[in-house]
Specification:
Rossmann fold, 12 helices, two-stranded parallel sheet, seven-stranded parallel beta sheet
Length: about 325
């Protein structure tokens, strides 16, 4: 891989991918809607070409993909736009890969797996989503699988919830933003439940490593975080990093459902709140057996880096 396109480069995982690829000597086209955000993030990087456009526009994606070897699809859209937006963006990415003889890597989440059985989830697990958004994710994966069958090398990577520098629109980021502003902070979900999160630079390292190998395409890969951690443990680390002494409240499923009576955005979030009570925890056994040790930054160190990024102003909206 000499040149790559990162769709959604201004988001948390997209930003981390651009930086990881550049660190490996790979030229990158960073694609997102807002050129000002791209310039703020990557304007100082000589190996990054910035391309502003709409991933839902076929022409914009094809133009950005000219002469690239691999396309990384990390685009995020608001929940309310998922039904039409995500399949269309996926098809545009596939078409751009086909026209440029490029490979395609879909950065996906855990929604397609549905409810957790309580055991670690491997790639062989049946995809049985019980939510609308989970079914949309399955549709995207099917488009990827069909593309691979047609001759476009494609892979799907499953990640848990993100956290990291510039991962602005995430559960932990909202808590940290309030903490650093000295405001009343809230934690989303039951603080007693142990869940997993992936530090975006770790996810980017794993994605780049997989994308560089020819024998990894045509498969799904689960990339877990650095173990599971409770809300109480995370809050203790946040207090240690920031000196925050105010109480941190809990956003419960009931609260989100009540707000959903008045807000479509909250109704969309309510559908996925089951993950805060019944977390899906990924197995990285396949990656470790085929590739090697997983990149895993401790939560304490990951939070330290995020706090530093937020204080220095690197965090931007996705």
């Amino acid at each position: 891989m000499k040149k790559a396109l990162v769709l959604g480069a201004s988001g948390g995982m997209g930003d981390a991918l651009v930086r990881e690829l550049v660190s490996r000597g790979i030229e990158v086209v960073a694609f997102a809607r807002n050129n000002n955000k791209l310039a703020m993030l990557f304007g100082h990087m000589v190996d990054v070409t910035m391309a502003s456009g709409d991933a839902r526009n076929e022409h914009d994606v094809e133009e950005a993909a000219r002469d690239v070897d691999v396309i990384f699809h990390t685009v995020s859209v608001p929940y309310k736009d998922w039904i039409e937006g995500h399949p269309l963006i996926m098809k545009n990415a596939v078409q751009a890969a086909q026209k440029n003889s490029a490979k395609l890597v879909l950065i996906d989440n855990i929604y397609a797996y549905g409810r957790s059985s309580g055991a670690l989830v491997g790639e062989e697990a049946t995809r049985q989503p019980h939510t609308k958004k989970g079914r949309i994710r399955v549709k995207m994966q099917q488009i990827a699988e069909e593309a691979h069958a047609s001759g476009i090398p494609t892979m799907v990577l499953h990640f848990p919830d993100f956290y990291g520098p510039n991962a602005h629109n995430t559960i932990l980021s909202h808590t940290l933003q309030a903490v650093l502003a000295g405001k009343r902070a809230m934690f989303v979900g039951n603080k007693n439940v142990r869940r997993e999160y992936i530090f975006t630079p770790d996810g980017a390292k794993a994605a780049a490593e997989l994308a560089l190998r020819d024998d990894t395409y045509g498969e799904r890969w689960n990339i877990p975080g650095s173990g599971v951690v409770s809300g109480h443990e995370l809050i203790a680390m946040i207090r240690e990093q920031t000196g925050y002494t105010k109480s941190i409240g809990t956003v419960t499923t009931g609260m989100i459902r009540f707000l959903g009576l008045f807000s479509r955005d909250m109704r969309e979030i309510a559908e996925m709140m089951y993950l805060t009570e019944e977390p899906v925890v990924l197995s990285g056994a396949k990656y470790e057996a085929r590739i090697g040790p997983l990149p895993q930054t401790s939560y304490k160190e990951g939070l330290r880096q995020i706090v530093q990024a937020m204080k220095t102003g690197r965090m931007t909206d996705d």
